[in-house]
Amino acid sequence: MALFFDQKWFTDRLNDMGRTPNDLADAIGMPLIELAAVWKDQRELSVDEVRGMAQFLKAPAEEVASRAGVSTPIPSEPGEAGVAGSDLAPVLERLDEMAHRLDRLERAVGDIKALLLDTRLNGDEKDT
């Protein structure tokens, strides 16, 4: 989970551009509910999402990653030294995608547990 997402910076940036979170979500192909989770520090951004936000907001990817929270990955440009130019880049991107899927699944399991508990509690009240 990202820590310290800078809502004000992102909101101000969108307002300065005359755009909305809906526009941003559409531009990066993210459901609005997922973007809301990012805004509330409940979801991290992937490298591709950081790139998409940077392009949409006309800001450097490094700044978007920094403003998105301490655990947000900073995308590297193709041809830069390091992992991006190596054979590991596709593997690392796939791992990043899988980590986000796992995060969504864990949230869904938590929601299901809460619903089950609520059903049990409400069922017990009806029996008495």
From TrEMBL:
GO molecular function: DNA binding
SUPFAM superfamilies to which the protein is assigned, alphabetical: lambda repressor-like DNA-binding domains (SSF47413)
Top-level taxon: Bacteria
Name listed for the protein in its UniProt record: DNA-binding protein
